[in-house]
Write a structure and sequence with these properties.
Length: about 675
């Protein structure tokens, strides 16, 4: 793993700035590795202690005279990093937070993805892995302060930047604006979420020192001097870069957060250090902060902030840490990411990975390892120890060593067998049957958020000479798998392959399985509708009379299918195209974390014991393995494997379970493919 030297030098420089401003260099005695539970009136780890007869009133404010922040009346410093509970299984939360604490950090930054908690309008889920209150309370139990970032927009390379896909049921909605339909949905969500947050605010005896609406940077530092990360409430996120530039929207958010959280919470915005972006992204009553990377001109960047905020602390967010783990269309090898804001990245399970768009649609990988101090599986890296060393020079560390990596296990080769072609089990996957339409309908039009839909029509005439089956530009969202008379013809792909040649007889069945690979999480083209957004044509003649099958694959698999179903006798073993494969394996008395590789497979989705582990795509890379948390596995009974392979599995289908991940390569460069 490559060490981020620039990041470490920047951390040291900012901490030295704190020392110059009057902070202690040695930080006092070391802390115990057993973290204290935060209590009302108790000092947080790293906070200054002032002897007194009674606990002071809990407060957090900006000192405009001294350009610093004060917690309970004294200068305050925190060191924090991000952990996204939505990307970590609940049973691993304690492990990840303990390692963050052991590294010397005293605060954790936490996103709240709106779409993770409100899958349908007015339907909320705060159970299991989605129990954000339990995560916040666990952080408090472990003695960690919290910087909360509840959206409504978070970016984070998360599906649609955290906004629910059902917002697009209204096709003309203007997201992140004062559009009445958008504001009504935001208000309804915030009136559910923020009452859960208010009792946990620092001012009310909790551990949340900052409630931010949006995303900020990497391991962040709050110093009593220049370079502080503002502990307040961030309204929106880099809104100045968004085309709408709607001050009424920011004003509405300001009023809503004030009404629901009270007047004492600090509110602020974060934007790129450009005057034009600061103009659109700031508002009177919100403290304006900036973000920039380690290669920026610091003087010029802070000059942009001073243009908007003549007084107050100079505040930077280490943004510009764009995740680089996108699937590639070439054989170029890239790293899965680089450290910018994540202390621990985790995994984009199921369909939660978002997408980038810079001239071309680029879906984010399932792994969100991010080259962070803690790996995707939660193991400490060289980078973590280097950061811990830097922190130790300026503030106390917990006593004792860093907890060792959790055990990993190579379960080895597991044989699978083909259960059925997808086209032969539509009765199970789409129990309500197809929707009839003259022309194709989008995912949003039929109210399906994620996954797959099947579009079916028939050839209108004999086609003896191959004709071009094509789609209008930007209408394949995101990848289509074409079958004619159940024979796989090839793929159509967004911003790439938009046509292929077919031939057949009048009345032959044409099927196109459409895959949603994640909605764009940043930029002006934010309303990322999915499915067939335009009609397919044969040699420029539009096709019509479509049957559209919404596919509830996850619902079927979570109910035990296909392992509990009767075997399909008509299964064509060697046929390419979308098909389901099944298998089982057992653990040797304990369920340890593992990594699964797909030798000879093409692209698809993996479930183990009904849990959707995400998308594999070894041909594109750079990710070659999927992380399998031990909490997903069973002990004492078989673990069921279900694979949806979309293009073509090997003739002898096997999976290989390893005790280490494989990143940074494509299938043709992987030596394990020869095993």
């Amino acid at each position: 793993m490559v060490l981020s030297t620039l990041g470490l030098l920047l951390a040291a420089a900012l901490l030295r700035a704190e020392v110059a401003a009057g902070g202690r260099r040695d930080g006092g005695p070391s802390r115990s590795l057993r973290p204290p539970r935060l209590r009302a009136g108790a000092a947080a780890p790293g906070a200054a202690r002032v002897p007194q007869a009674a606990p002071p009133a809990r407060s957090f404010r900006i000192d405009f005279e001294r350009d610093c922040f004060r917690k309970d009346g004294v200068p305050f410093r925190y060191v924090s990093g991000s952990v996204h509970y939505a990307r970590v299984p609940r049973l691993a939360w304690r492990d990840r937070l303990l390692r963050l604490y052991a590294a010397g950090l005293n605060a954790v930054q936490v996103y709240v993805p709106w779409n993770y908690h409100e899958p349908q309008p007015g339907v909320y889920d705060f159970s299991g892995d989605r129990d954000v209150e339990a995560f916040l309370d666990l952080a408090a139990e472990l003695g960690l302060l919290v910087i909360l970032r509840p959206g409504p927009y978070i970016c984070a390379e998360w599906e649609m930047g955290g906004l629910p896909a059902w917002l697009l049921w209204k096709p003309d909605i203007v997201l992140r604006s004062s559009d009445p339909a958008y504001l009504a949905a935001v208000d309804a969500w915030l009136h559910v979420l923020l009452p859960k947050i208010k009792p946990r605010l620092y001012q009310h005896g909790g551990n949340i020192i900052s409630v931010q609406v949006g995303a900020v940077g990497p391991v962040s530092r709050c110093l009593s001097g220049p370079g502080c990360i503002l502990p307040g409430l961030q309204v929106e996120n880099e809104y100045g870069s968004y085309y709408a530039c709607d001050s009424s929207y920011l004003q509405h958010l300001l009023g809503t957060f004030r009404a629901l959280l009270g007047p004492e919470v600090l509110l602020f915005t974060t934007d790129d250090a450009q005057v034009e972006e600061l103009r659109c992204g700031t508002l009177q009553g919100l403290y304006a902060t900036i973000d920039f990377g380690p290669d920026s001109n610091v003087t010029e960047a802070f000059g942009a902030q001073r243009h908007i905020e003549p007084r107050g602390p100079l505040v930077r967010h280490d943004g510009k840490g764009w995740f680089r783990g996108c699937h590639l269309s070439s054989r170029r090898v890239t790293a899965p990411g680089s450290l910018r804001y994540m202390f621990h990245g985790g995994t984009n399970f199921a369909y939660w990975s978002g997408a980038d768009f810079k001239g071309q649609y680029k879906p984010v990988t399932t792994s969100y390892d991010y080259d962070a101090p803690l790996s995707e599986a939660g193991d400490p890296t060289e980078k973590l120890y280097a950061i811990r060393t830097v922190i130790s020079k300026f503030q106390p560390l917990p006593v004792g060593p860093m907890p060792p990596p959790t055990p990993k296990y190579a379960y080895g080769w597991v044989a699978l067998h083909k259960y059925a072609d997808l086209l032969d089990v539509l009765d199970v996957l789409s129990p309500s049957g197809p929707i009839q339409s003259q022309f194709p309908l989008s995912f949003e039009a039929v109210k399906q958020a994620h996954g797959f839909m099947l579009y079916r029509t028939h050839l209108p005439r004999d086609i003896l000479v191959p004709a071009m089956l094509s789609a209008p530009p930007h209408s394949i969202c995101d990848r289509g798998y074409v079958m004619l008379q159940k024979e796989y013809q090839g793929t159509l792909e967004r911003d790439s392959q938009t046509g292929l040649r077919v031939k057949g007889k009048a009345g032959d069945t044409l099927d196109v399985l459409l895959e949603n690979m994640g909605r764009i999480s940043f930029g002006a083209n934010f309303s990322d509708f999915k499915g067939l957004l335009g009609n397919l044509s044969l040699d420029s003649s539009p096709l019509s009379k479509w049957l559209i099958y919404p596919l509830a694959i996850d619902a079927a698999i979570q109910q035990g299918w296909p392992h509990t179903a009767m075997p399909k006798s008509s299964c064509s073993r060697g046929r390419a195209g979308p098909a389901f494969y099944t298998g089982t394996f057992e653990t040797p008395g304990i369920a340890w974390d593992t990594f699964v590789k797909f030798p000879g497979w093409s692209k698809g989705q993996l479930w183990i014991n009904g849990f959707n582990l995400g998308r594999y795509w070894p041909h594109r890379g750079p990710q070659q393995t999927l992380f399998v948390p031990g909490s997903v596995l069973r002990v004492g009974c078989p673990n069921s494997i279900t694979v949806l392979e979309l293009e073509g599995a090997p003739l002898n289908p096997f999976l290989l379970f390893l005790d280490r991940p494989l990143f940074n390569r494509t299938l043709s460069h992987s030596p394990l493919d020869k095993e």
